């Protein structure tokens, strides 16, 4: 019965719920969106939004929006300085409070993303996944997900992907709302924002075995 109900929710109810919730959130949070945009423009400069192509449902590429959290500081050769240098105190605040993620509400409204699902990662990771890890793209990527409430950037890539696939196999209305409520709690507690060895998160370098060739 649970699997049947989960299938109905996934096929017919999840997207309408995403649309309604994201629209309500944008309307309620519009003053905060405007304030953060002004602060980003003042403290970090232009552009206010960070835009990057990410793989979504079935690995279809879309443009994801976030508030900018880093400067464009470069070395004498024109290369960008390390993240740890370009990530300012203000940028860290935006990340620790997840305010930088708010523009993704527009991605959800458009249908690129969902409120809950595996986080959209970098396009260059696609050929590095093994068969199991690629299954994370069987669901629309989310603003938050099972991996985020289980440790976010503080857990290993392998654990994160396993949790993503676990979510894909068990999508349900009650499961999504549990993740939504846990996400709100995590934001206030500010847990698992960064890994222990990097300013943001170490890049995924692939698997030693079973790598998918591009």
Can you walk me through this structure?
The relative contact order is 0.15. Residues 193-198 have low confidence and may be disordered. The chain contains eight helices and four strands, in the order αββαααβαβααα. Helix 1 crosses helix 4. The strands form two sheets. It has a two-stranded antiparallel ribbon. The longest helix has 42 residues, at 2-43. Strand 3, helix 5 and strand 4 form a beta-alpha-beta unit. The chain is mainly alpha-helical and 214 residues long. This is Sugar transferase.
Averaged pLDDT: 88
**How far apart are the first and last residues' alpha carbons, in Å?**
39 Å
- Our estimate of the beta-strand percent is 5-15%
> Number of helix segments?
8
Biggest sheet: strands, sense, closure?
Answer: 2 strands, antiparallel
Specify the overall morphology: globular
Helical proportion?
Answer: 40-55%
Count of individual beta strands = 4
Main attributes?
single chain, 214 residues, mainly alpha, 8 helices, 46% helix, transferase, transferase activity, Bact_transf
Compact overview of the structure:
The chain has 214 residues and is mainly alpha-helical. It has 8 helices and 4 strands, in the order αββαααβαβααα.
Helix and strand topology:
Layout: H1 2-43, E1 49-55, E2 61-67, H2 83-86, H3 89-96, H4 104-110, E3 114-116, H5 131-134, E4 142-144, H6 146-149, H7 157-169, H8 173-189
Helix pairs in contact: 1-4
């Amino acid at each position: 019965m649970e699997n049947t109900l989960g299938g109905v929710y996934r096929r017919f109810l999840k997207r309408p719920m995403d649309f309604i919730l994201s629209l309500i959130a944008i309307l309620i949070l519009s003053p905060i969106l405007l304030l953060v945009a002004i602060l980003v423009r003042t403290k970090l400069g232009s552009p206010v939004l960070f835009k990057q192509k990410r793989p979504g449902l079935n690995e279809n590429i879309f443009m994801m929006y976030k508030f900018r959290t880093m400067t464009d500081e470069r070395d004498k050769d024109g290369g960008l300085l390390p993240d740890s240098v370009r990530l300012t105190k203000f940028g860290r605040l935006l990340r620790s409070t997840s305010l930088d993620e708010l523009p993704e509400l527009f991605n959800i409204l458009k249908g690129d993303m969902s409120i809950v699902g595996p986080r959209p990662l970098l396009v260059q990771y696609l050929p590095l996944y093994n068969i199991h890890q690629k299954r994370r793209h069987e669901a629309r990527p989310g603003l938050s997900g099972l991996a985020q409430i289980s440790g976010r950037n503080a857990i290993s890539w392998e654990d994160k992907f396993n949790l993503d696939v676990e979510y894909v196999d068990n999508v349900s209305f009650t499961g999504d709302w549990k993740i939504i409520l846990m996400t709100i709690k995590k934001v206030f507690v500010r847990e698992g924002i960064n890994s222990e060895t990097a300013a943001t998160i170490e890049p995924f370098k692939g698997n030693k075995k079973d790598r998918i060739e591009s």
